[in-house]
Design a protein that fits this description.
alpha+beta
């Protein structure tokens, strides 16, 4: 076998040959006064032994000393022509002249035999990186086509394998560390999300969270449902920019803050205003998008405020989808912006979707196209909120290896009819003021509660609560005043509104005081009570009684 013929094909040989040729001085030029470098001239005058050319090197001896694994096969059966000492030390003695499928079982184990066929047919080199053998060592294999016959008419493949075990083990340790960090972030993220969604009386709600694929770091997507009392419900969804444990930790702080601010029963834009300041304090370099919305069944609307988040989508009973685009302020953490609230209808039979950008954002398409795709999917999605949620995720192509976190919150306001509709009733009375307002309110409450067939004990408690709330409004509030009674399948709600925005508070009345006991009485007999400022000015004071 003439190794000299293909020795120049070894990786790096061409560069070394070219470098050597470039610095060789032509004998013809020496005699014509061509400049000779000092070092080269000194060697010539001292009659130093000439450096041998590549073609003069004993190729077999060189290859036997190469630390890399070298093997040569020839012919369509890839018969073994040569293996060097490193190859023998790694895999044992290999018989020359035998087909590779028999003589080199390690190549068959690594799936390299088809690669030899490709190299032989295409006459082009092929490389496979970091293949692990049964011995536990990892190698990168380069297969190069060569001429193996003395006259250059035969085809062969030179197999050159470099031991990359250290690199492969380091890469595996890095991947293991990344997997551990990802698992920590996912665990933290899921533990900070609500384990069970609160269940409002008037809404049916479902949510899903899916972290990005194994190659993507976990983000800070979150959602929450908060019952505010008086039949109202707050819904929130947000996305902390960034990845990993830090984003999940910031998300947890913001979600906790949202729940605390929601208990104040503030308008949505005021909640975002407070969150904006908190986000700046948590980390001035960390921003987040968020939508905070409040549903009031008496109004049939969704009041919301957005801090740089994607628009809420609402499908009405007829299937028409509305995009709530405005108003939208900058993300949380930017500071210096006054957020405002908007509203979108959410009557019986409607479905609303709140979501994060992982659901609709794709690298190869505009964001508006993703939202339009979600609108089309929502227009045809029917069933329970969980069914709608799953259909939307599938329709938008979200899979287990998705490159971003996805959070989706679906809420429905069911259209109730028949016996189910009888469990949800409303009644209201405008109070004109004067001494006759309190007796009228008591008579109205008694008649309504009797018609709703409540037990006598609950009727008495409801009339007493209505009387105390109306008396408090007459004494401390201003017109217009209204008494509203509402029943659901789980509770009775009594609410009084007036034009004064001063919120009442529960206080201890002294024995000699003639006033100050109304709210204390209501708080004692009711399951819960609260107050809030209304958007148009004024306040609402409510209490509720659990039916089950």
């Amino acid at each position: 076998m003439n190794f000299t013929r293909w020795s120049a094909r070894l990786p790096g040989t061409q560069r070394r040959t070219a470098a050597q040729t470039e610095h060789t001085v032509s004998p013809d030029l020496r005699g014509e006064g061509a400049p000779v470098p000092a070092a080269r001239a000194e060697q010539l005058t001292d009659d130093a032994p000439p450096v041998p050319a590549v073609d003069e090197l004993p190729v077999r001896d060189v290859l036997d000393r190469v630390p890399a694994l070298v093997a040569l096969v020839h012919g369509p059966e890839h018969r073994v022509a040569y293996v060097n000492d490193s190859y023998t030390a790694a895999f044992g003695v290999r018989p020359v002249g035998e087909p590779a499928c028999e003589a080199l079982p390690e190549l068959d184990e690594l799936g390299l035999l088809p690669l030899l066929d490709q190299v032989l047919r295409s006459a082009k080199s092929r490389t496979v990186k970091s293949r692990k053998t049964s011995s536990g060592r990892s190698y990168t294999f380069t297969c190069t086509p060569v001429d193996t016959s003395p006259k250059g008419h035969g085809g062969g493949v030179l197999i050159f394998a470099t031991d990359v075990t250290d690199h492969a083990e380091a890469a595996e340790r890095l991947r293991a560390s990344e997997r551990s960090q990802r698992e920590t972030a996912v665990t933290l993220q899921r533990s900070l999300l609500p384990q069970e969604l609160e269940e409002p009386d008037d809404l049916r709600i479902a949510a899903t969270y899916q972290p990005g694929g194994t190659e993507a770091a976990v983000g800070g997507d979150w959602y929450d449902v908060i019952t505010l009392g008086g039949g109202r419900t707050a819904l929130v969804i947000g996305d902390v920019m960034g990845r990993g444990v830090r984003a999940a930790a910031v998300m947890g702080q913001l979600r906790t803050a949202v729940r605390a601010y929601a208990r104040l029963d503030l308008p949505p834009h005021e909640v975002l205003q407070l969150l904006d300041g908190l986000a700046t304090e948590i980390d001035a370099n960390q921003i987040a998008t968020c939508v905070y919305a409040v549903h009031d069944p008496n109004e049939g609307r969704l009041i919301y405020a957005s801090a740089g988040h994607l628009p809420i989508l609402v499908r009405d009973e007829s299937g028409v989808v509305v995009r709530a685009d405005e108003p939208t302020g900058p993300p949380l953490g930017t500071g210096g912006w006054l957020h405002t609230s908007g509203s979108v209808p959410l009557g019986p039979g409607s479905t609303a979707v709140l979501y994060t950008d992982g659901l609709v954002e794709r690298r190869d398409e505009d964001l508006d196209e993703g939202i339009a795709s979600l609108e089309r999917a929502l227009s045809g999605a029917t069933g329970t909120p969980q069914v709608v949620c799953d259909r939307l995720v599938r329709s938008l192509g979200v899979t287990a290896d998705h490159d971003d976190d996805v959070a989706v919150l679906v809420l429905q306001h069911p259209a109730r009819t028949g016996p189910d509709g009888d469990l949800f009733r409303n009644a209201a009375l405008e109070l004109l003021g004067g001494v006759e307002a309190a007796p009228r309110a008591r008579a109205f409450a008694s008649g309504v509660l009797t018609s709703w067939r409540f037990p006598a004990e609950l009727q008495d408690l409801g009339v007493l609560a209505a009387s105390e709330l109306v008396a408090n409004s007459l004494q401390h509030g201003t017109p217009p005043m209204r008494l509203r009674l509402r029943r659901t399948d789980r509770r009775l709600i009594i609410e009084v509104t007036d034009g004064d925005d001063h919120l009442p508070r529960r206080r201890r009345a002294e024995p000699a005081d003639e006033a100050g006991r109304g709210i204390a009485i209501v708080a004692t007999i009711a399951s819960g009570w609260g107050s809030r400022r209304t958007p148009g000015g004024g306040k609402a004071v409510w209490c509720e009684f659990a039916l089950k």
